[in-house]
Amino acid sequence: MLRIENDFLVVEIDQKGAQLTHVVNKQAQFDYIWNGSQWPKHAPLLFPAIGCSTQDSYLIEGKTYPMQQHGFASDYLFEVVQQLSNKLILRLRDNEEMFKSYPFHFELQVTFELVDQQLRHTFTVKNLDEQELSYSFGFHPAFNVPIDDEGGFEDYQILFETSEATLEQFEIKKNPYPYRSGKKHLFNNGAKVLPLTRKIFESGLIILNNQIDQVILRSEKSAHQVKMALNGFPYFCLWTKEDEDLDFICLEPFYGLPDVIDQSQEISHKEGNAHLAPKSEQSLTCTLTFE
What would the pLDDT profile of 27-38 be if each residue is shown by its tens digit? Predict the structure, then answer.
């Protein structure tokens, strides 16, 4: 594991997948990040796909290419570009194996930087190719709920800060799961404060068709909270395992979407995807404040 720290936080990152594995409050000595065995992940990166692709594949000019759920970035060892006491930069570049499912030249760079109680995350995709790059990117961190064992799961709430008037969600098909149906619905009766309950996840993940500026995970029973400030992500997802009462919630900024069921997709026209001109780059940011 790779490690950065400052006076407030200790952060550990798995070089495989550039996955955040621990954020420890140094004063109170507790971890904000889920590490339970029932779901053996922590904060995977989703690239170059989010969710399921129809028949686990997509098209480029009519030719079929395989693509597993959430892409392949989490399967690979990232290279260390820079490591300081409070900052880490990792990168992933395409290789021959990736080219079989994603025939593009790219670089994915991930920066972790601690500033006081904040972990500043920057995700930069570079198109090294001579053709346009079409891709999805998602950040999938799981936070312990309750925080520091204060209260229970259903004592917490999520506050969504956005300039958009109401929240709207994509309908998810339960079987097969988790594809979209193609429909959208009003979420949480339009309210921007969501009390956490197990019931709201009975149909699986919740993907909001909204650009969220900041999300706050909090409880009146806890002295601690997590804030997630976002820049550049057009969608946002909430998830916990709907078939088990596990003590975590995933707060997931998305640039991209799962496929609509049974609709084969040309990657250049895939709904929700980012598009990057040749020899250009795009950065998305997520600033986590741990209080």
Answer: 999 999 999 999
pTM over 0.90: yes
Domain positions in the chain: 2-290
Residue 52 reports pLDDT greater than 90: no
pLDDT tens-digit readout, 177-191: 788 999 999 999 989
Q: Hey, what amino acid is at 204?
A: G
Question: Domain 2-290 belongs to what topology?
Answer: Beta-galactosidase; Chain A, domain 5 (2.70.98)
257-278, pLDDT tens digit by residue?
999 988 888 999 999 999 999 9
Three-state helix/strand/coil letters over the chain: CEEEECCCEEEEEECECCEEEEEEECCCCEECECCCCCCCCCCCEEECCCCCCHHHEEEECCEEEECCCCECHHHCECEEEEECCCEEEEEEECCHHHHCCCCCCEEEEEEEEEECCEEEEEEEEEECCCCCEEECEEECCEEECCHHHCCCHHHEEEEEECCCCCCEEEEECCCCCCCEEEEEEECHHHCCEEECCCHHHCCCCEEECCCCCEEEEEECCCCCCEEEEEECCCEEEEECCCCCCCCEEEEEEEECCCCECCCCCEHHHCCCCEEECCCCEEEEEEEEEEC
- Overall average pLDDT of the 9-37 stretch: 97
Residue 9 has pLDDT above 90, yes or no: yes
Structure tokens at 145: 């709920």
Closest C-alpha among 192, 217, 223, 215 to residue 287 = 215
Question: Vertex 112, ends 237 and 148: CA angle to 5°?
Answer: 65
The residue to which tokens 């006491």 are assigned: 85
Contact 203, 164 (CB under 8 A): no
Token pair for 66: 């395989």
